[in-house]
Write a structure and sequence with these properties.
Elements (H helix, E strand, L loop, with lengths): L3 E3 L2 E3 L12 H17 L3 E7 L4 H6 L1 H14 L7 H5 L10 E8 L2 E2 L11 H10 L1 H13 L2 E3 L3 H5 L2 E4 L1
Parallel strand pairs: 2-3
Antiparallel strand pairs: 1-2, 3-4, 4-5, 4-7, 6-7
Helix pairs in contact: 1-6
Length: 164
């Protein structure tokens, strides 16, 4: 899918969406985070992938989320407690202050969740270890710009963050 730029921020909606809706405040803070990242690491760009979802969209996604949650619990019974964190709207249905971003390094989009939310805990740990410096820079810039990174390991690698 082609990316678009909006005020220095690359926008690449996650399937099935064609656009990403966020608040003006979140956009301003995301721009601030992007400028902080550029100070620390050259060639790193944030990609906005998800923002506000309407009540209608949230209701449509209820069944796929429930099904995903059931499958996740079957595959990873020891991680069943994570289902609510991973398969809930996580504020995307409340306002445009809850966003997901990806990271681009030297023009290539990085994939921290190779199997999406179904990435194993072992793989999550490996990815986190391999990318710890980059993730620290990105998470710190977002936090310094007023965002709170989701505490769940899967959600944090999806870079789900909430503007405080």
């Amino acid at each position: 899918m082609n990316s678009k730029h909006f005020h220095e921020i690359k926008v690449q909606p996650r399937w099935p969406y064609l656009s990403v809706l966020i608040s003006e405040r979140a956009l301003a803070q995301l721009k601030h985070a992007q400028s902080e990242i550029r100070k620390d690491l050259d060639g790193i760009n944030l990609i906005l992938t998800r923002g506000y979802e309407s009540y209608f969209t949230t209701k449509l996604r209820r069944i796929p989320r429930k099904l995903g949650s059931i499958i996740f619990a079957i595959i990873y019974p020891s991680r069943k407690s994570e289902c609510i964190e991973i398969f809930s709207p996580n504020g995307h249905d409340e306002s445009g202050d809850h966003i997901d971003v990806s990271v681009e390094l030297d023009g290539c989009k990085l994939k921290f969740l190779p199997w999406g939310v179904f990435t194993s805990a072992e793989k999550l740990n490996e990815i986190h270890k391999q990318n710890s410096k980059l993730l620290t820079v990105v998470w710190t810039a977002l936090q310094n710009s007023g965002f709170k990174i989701h505490p769940n390991r899967t959600e944090s690698l999806q870079i789900h963050c909430d503007l405080q």
